[in-house]
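Narrative of activities, Objective 1.

The group set out to show that a structural description can be obtained from nothing but a protein's sequence at a throughput compatible with the screening campaign. Below is one input-output pair from the validation batch, recorded exactly as produced.
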Amino acid sequence: MKSFVKLNYVKIPAKEMFEKSEAFERLMKKRRTVRTFSDKPVNIDVIKNCVRAASYAPSGANKQPWHFVIVGNKEIKKKIRIAAEKEEREFYSGRAPESWLKDLEPFGTNENKEFLETAPYLIVVFEEKYKTLNGKVVKNYYTKESVGIATGILITALHFSNLVTLTHTPSPMNFLNEILNRPSNEKPFLIVVAGYPATNAEVPDITKKEFNEIATIFV
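Output recorded for this entry:
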């Protein structure tokens, strides 16, 4: 049965619209992936607000096929680090093709994932492939696309809140279901590490592609 409500949309002047878009672009230009975190505490309500913002993302048939597990507990973070580093050691010592490792060289990554314990919060994002209702399997649609959009909003919200982030994707990630007691219909999507940067934090000196390399316009 269809149910609709009127869209609450307030139009703003074109000049203000442009200024807002320009200000947002400047803000996002400052976003950087950080690998060295401070252990300084972060207000849990800030993290919760950012997760709520992510939950407003569009999704296939409004199924909202995501679950966010916020981990601040030190013992659980340690378990995640131990399991993740086990997978990473296998990745760096033989599983990864030489070309992949070469591409990673400029970023100084390795199997040591200290940030998984140091950062105040890990937000583990799960992709809900399907639901089980009254004993029946109910399919979710476009789950990867939906969860990807929600994760992008989450990272943006954290950056907007003056925190730094790192996206971490150990492979495979099934250990996260076990450690975090998540059901089999949920698949780990990635870990968002969130907090303040370490005082000595450095980031790779990289550039982004020019606009005309990443966009095509037809007018």
